[in-house]
Amino acid sequence: IYIVFIVASIFAFLVSLFFAIKIPWKESRGAEGEIINWNEMKKSGKLFAIVISYALLLFIFGMTKSIMVNFLSFDNASNVFNWLYWLLWAGIWPLMVTSLIIGIINLLTGKKMREAFNRGVPFR
User: Fold this and answer.
1) Sorted alphabetically, which keywords does the UniProt record give (predicted)?
2) Domain regions of the chain by residue span
3) Mean pLDDT, residues 72-85
């Protein structure tokens, strides 16, 4: 059953990483360099995909750590996966705080940009 969870989580990780990479951060621009479309959900979706892919990577390393410790007798490999798991676990708080700050900034600037964009003010 562990192999099913590992394969499913690797697939979900690759899908979320694909969306985190493919969603553009910048807005689409016209021929003269003006913003032609403004979408606040695009940046929120990119942040969400980054956080989900990080959490799935943490889950994958936790599962491999538990498989190595409980079922396989590879001491060096279990130490490596244990070390990587705790390294990723230590990075979760800076990721959450940073994504929260970026999300709030995008929310505030998005409202101002949406109002100005609806009024017809050109942006470069």
Assistant:
1) Membrane, Transmembrane, Transmembrane helix
2) 2-24+38-117
3) 78
